[in-house]
Write a structure and sequence with these properties.
Shape: globular
Number of helices: 15
CATH topology: Growth Hormone, Chain: A
Largest sheet: none
Order of helices and strands: HHHHHHHHHHHHHHH
Number of strands: 0
Helix content: over 70%
CATH class: Mainly Alpha
Number of domains: 1
Distance between the termini: 26 Å
Length: 407
């Protein structure tokens, strides 16, 4: 298993603190979506707009944020992002408890936290690289993915139960508290100062990252698929709340179970990558994971019931985890150390930042034909893109390098 990164004391401390924090993040994700539906009377458009404000800043500012992170001490930037995230969760909680919360205020906080996330993703990965070194980077990515996907099980399940028992504000308070541990841990992480001399201009750093991808056919193909999968195939934060309320006619605890089922599959996928990740880090095998994910989404043509949805979401979670972890790891091990922040930002832009476009697409489809249609149409588009990229990689076989090779 790829657990060698745990030999580093700094990474062990950060890993434990981050694992707790991510549970709180998933609780907040469920609570915020549920709150939006309550305030908007189950509006798919409102949920799509919330997604746009949450993830749009990553698309707009992502590459610049990565260049910004690469100009400063990575640990310091990461620490600031965690403090801001805790403050955002506390703001949600106070406004909800005092009944001052409104849909415009939710959008404002979501937008500010979205800008913060654009900085968080590259700062986190660049800091992790400094903790473990390039030789154990794949191990660290697999371990972080395992913790993230375990949180996908615990967070939504606990969040759904907390909403049912104590109200939405409880999830926000618990998320705010979950950041205290990781903030404390980051103060113990040694600062790695930047090299002497003036930092390069952000525009030059962004150009270098784009040229790096353009010269690597495999990265170009994987990023192209990531755009389609991120925009149209991965809209669960929007679709599952709608599916729960409109198709299953159920409550927040059921939504928690659906998210948890997907999380179980994702956890198994993350564990798969820790065991046989080196075998699966072939670009064509990564794309096959996306195709399996798309195929399972097409089954939603039948508008499954609760039990069938649980099974489907487990398989979808596994396939999507293998695909996304494989892509993320491949991108990082194929990129120079000096470009880690920018490459992670580019990955985040094309996968997470593109979500608002897909949210509006999924919201429109759900409004016209129901939430199940939003799932299977996303699967169809992802499948077509996956087949196209698989063909592209096959004809570029002579130029495709295995993960870990020098770019």
């Amino acid at each position: 298993m790829q657990t060698a990164a745990l030999q580093y004391a700094e990474f062990r401390r950060y890993y434990l603190g981050q694992a707790v924090s991510v549970v709180g993040t998933w609780m907040q994700s469920v609570a915020a979506a549920w709150l939006v539906l309550q305030l908007s009377h189950d509006s798919a458009f409102a949920l799509a707009l919330f997604g746009a404000f949450s993830y749009g800043p990553i698309l707009i500012f992502g590459l610049y944020a990565g260049a910004l992170v690469d100009r400063f001490v990575h640990r310091d930037v990461l620490l600031v992002t965690q403090v801001i995230s805790a403050a955002g969760a506390a703001s949600y909680a106070v406004l909800t408890m005092t009944h001052l919360i409104s849909f415009p205020l939710i959008l404002l906080i979501a937008g500010l936290l979205g800008i913060n996330q654009a900085l968080y993703f590259p700062a986190r990965q660049a800091t992790v690289l400094e903790m473990v070194g390039r030789s154990e980077l794949a191990s660290a990515v697999a371990l972080n993915a395992t913790a993230f996907n375990l949180a996908r099980i615990l967070g939504p399940a606990i969040g759904g139960l907390a909403i049912a028992g104590y109200g939405v504000a409880a999830c926000f308070w618990l998320n705010a508290a979950s950041y205290l541990g990781v903030i404390a841990v980051l103060y113990t992480i040694r600062r790695r100062p930047r090299p002497a001399g003036p930092p390069p201009r952000a525009i030059d750093l962004m150009g270098e990252a784009i040229n790096h991808v353009r010269r690597a056919p495999t990265l170009l193909g994987l990023f192209a698929l990531l755009v389609v999968a991120g925009a149209f195939g991965a809209n669960f934060n929007l679709v599952l709340p709608l599916f729960t309320r409109l198709a299953l006619h159920a409550n927040a605890d059921t939504l928690g179970y659906l998210f948890a089922a997907q999380g179980v599959g994702s956890l198994i996928g993350a564990l798969t990558m820790t065991v046989v990740g080196s075998f699966l880090l072939d670009p064509r095998r990564i794309v096959l994971g996306a195709l399996l994910f798309a195929l399972m989404e097409l089954v939603f043509l039948t508008t499954p019931g609760f039990a069938q949805s649980l099974v489907l979401l487990v398989v979808i979670g596994w396939a999507f985890a293998v695909y996304t972890i494989g892509t993320n790891t491949y991108v990082q091990v194929r990129s120079p150390d000096r470009m880690q922040g920018r490459m992670v930002s580019l990955y985040s832009m094309l996968f997470v930042g593109i979500t608002p476009i897909g949210n509006f697409f999924a919201g429109a489809v759900a409004h016209l034909w129901g939430p199940a249609a939003a799932v299977w149409t996303g699967g169809a588009l992802t499948g077509l893109a996956g087949l196209a990229v698989l063909f592209y990689l096959s004809v570029s076989r002579g130029r495709v390098a295995p993960a870990g090779a020098n770019p």
